[in-house]
Amino acid sequence: MKTKLPLKTLIFFLGVNGLYAQSIDDFTSVTPVAPSAQFVIPLSHAFQKLAEVGDVLTEGGLFKPKPDFTGYVPIASSSANGYLSINSEDVPPPFGIGGGVMVFDINYNSTTKLWQTTKSQDLDFTAVGNTAANCSGTVTSWGTVITCEEASVPDTFPPIDGYNDLGWNIEINPATKTVVGKHYAMGNFAHENVTIHTNARTVYQGADSNPGYLYKFVADAAQDLSSGKLYVFKGLKNGIGSWILLDNSNQTEQNSTLTQSGPSDHDATIFNGIEDVEIGPDGMVYFAVKGEGTVYRFSDSDVLETSASTVTMETYVGGGASYNINDGSTITSVAWGNGNDNLAFDGDGNLWVLQDSGNNYIWVVKNGHSQAIPDVEIFGIAPIGSEPTGITFTPDYKYLFMSIQHPADTNIANQTDAGGQTVNFDKGTTLVIALSENLGNSLSVENKNFDGDFMVFPNPLGASRNLIIKGKPINNIKLYSVLGKMVLDYDYNKTHTVELNLKQFNSGIYFLKINEKTTSKLVIQ
């Protein structure tokens, strides 16, 4: 038996009646390293490729470049049937094809444990003067999607209607595949994302520019974002502030949101590129500032601004800090760095943070974290040249949807997804991620044929504890405990049959790995 570093990314919990993975946030951090051609996630999880740039859409056209916000919109609150709204952040011609939004009708097949697409369509925005640079957005509580234009361009292209061509929030209906409208009252600037309060009226958003500003929009009526009051934040980034009302009743005022916010007018607090804004389960508002490498959070004493509210703000994560990352064998101090971008909360109140520069980590800030008592993990590392974008969950929080944007076209990852597809990550790709037990049939407590290469039996392993492995030439066998500790490591010389006696191991769940690439679950009774 060799002594080697244990594998760090298998983590499951053994219940009274067997193996129970509690939720998607049950994982051991991956080792913090520089990006490679592969998409690195814990072995306890799996991914499935849903689409990639260049795929043919069922309703005509191709899957567009630079996939960004990947919003799952449930049908009747379902976690198995819904619409997947995917932004394209491409720029207008002649530099790109213009961006837009594609909607996929998707459903989960409980037999194959895979997601499937029944319809895919590129939406038509000509009725609102087209769209481009569609970055992030949000899913509304009333079943629509807000897609955000991350650029502000004057009224240059037809139709000449007095409104700036780009820099707006646009609402779409994924069920009907129609555009509800551009919401000019929400202001004009480089929109990255919005988040909507449960009152269906209050919206928090930020300008992804430097100078950038933090805004609050209060709609006149619930579920109608076409009119309302627009405010900008002024105050301390760690301390007290308030909202200042902007002029916002006509085209000129709505086109000049940034100018009104700036030093020559209201002199609002400057942030260096506000990326994403999310309301946490604690009711506080969290927002990522990429250029400052900080996620701030604040409380708002009156979300409807019926009286002058008090905003109390603080640094939540980042801000020049480093965090100890435990990959199961080594604890490494890792700088948060810059580039914190898309945010989303899971069902346990953990904040997922996608990083679009540096090492392109997918961070998970655990519920209860503070700068004084930090609790931060790294879930994944996006491939070379890319950034991880978009992120939403199904209502039951078992499935995470996201995209890999603009990876290096020289990547040859040769990764196999949960459905058996080979994925190279050499083009923009949209994915769904889940615990391995919830996606595909890669792990099973039944006798397992390793994709036709190997037979392992009996499984579960009974009192004799004699395990037999047969198949293609066997060069190495490793066994890991349920916590990811390597407990066995044997080398062989192209053997076709191996018999192992595992009497020295306690009853429980283990993971068997053959030739460094094929992993299956093993139950010792």
Automatic annotation (TrEMBL):
Q: Which InterPro entries does the entry mention?
A: 6-blade_b-propeller_TolB-like, PhoX, Secre_tail
**Could you tell me what this protein is called?**
Secretion system C-terminal sorting domain-containing protein
Q: Which organism is it from?
A: Algibacter agarivorans
Instruction: List each copy of the Secretion system C-terminal sorting domain by range.
Output: 456-524
Q: Which UniProt keywords apply?
A: Signal
Renumbered to this chain, the signal peptide range is 1-21
Pfam families documented for this protein:
PhoX (PF05787), Por_Secre_tail (PF18962)
Q: Which SUPFAM superfamilies match?
A: 3-carboxy-cis,cis-mucoante lactonizing enzyme (SSF75011)
List the coiled-coil residues. Answer: none
Q: Has UniProt tagged this entry with the keyword Signal?
A: yes
